């Protein structure tokens, strides 16, 4: 089996739950084809640099996949039929990167900084 990184952009007017349901559908298709999904990252609704099919924003998802080529061909066929999918990109890789992507890693660092800056309102502060 081959290793793939698969990125999906879906329309801005679907909900985050529908975008994640699309990820679950992709995972089910891959498992039916004899593969496995090692990681699914939902990046959220992000601005596009230019309009894609009249959309200014899109829901992004990244999947790390270990599957045969036939399973990936079926996933791409299904995504090309789906009207909610704006674009997809499948790249074959030598090994899967299971760490957080740079986009989610930056988001986590920002959350940690906000937690450090937030004032603590506990019992000890009142004394």
Give the secondary structure arrangement, pairings included:
Blueprint: E1 2-11, H1 16-32, E2 36-52, E3 55-67, H2 69-81, E4 85-93, H3 102-117, H4 123-126
Antiparallel strand pairs: 1-3, 1-4, 2-3
Helix pairs in contact: 1-2
Question: Could you describe the 3D structure shown?
Answer:
This protein is α+β, with helices and mostly antiparallel strands. Helix content is 39%, strand content 39%. It has four helices and four strands. It has helices at residues 16-32, 69-81, 102-117, 123-126, and strands at 2-11, 36-52, 55-67, 85-93. Strands 2-3-1-4 form a four-stranded antiparallel beta sheet, with helices on one face. Strand 2 and strand 3 form a beta hairpin. Helix 1 (16-32) runs antiparallel to helix 2 (69-81). The radius of gyration is 18 Å and the shape is globular. The mean pLDDT is 89.
Main sheet makeup: 4 strands, antiparallel
Topology pattern, helix = H, strand = E: EHEEHEHH
Give the fraction of residues assigned to helices: 25-40%
Query: What number is the mean pLDDT?
Result: 89
Radius of gyration, whole Å? 18 Å
- Widest sheet: strand order? 2-3-1-4
The DSSP helix count reads 4
Q: What is the count of β-strands?
A: 4
End-to-end C-alpha gap: 63 Å
Which secondary-structure class do the elements indicate? alpha+beta
Shape: globular
Low-confidence stretches: none
Strand content: 35-45%
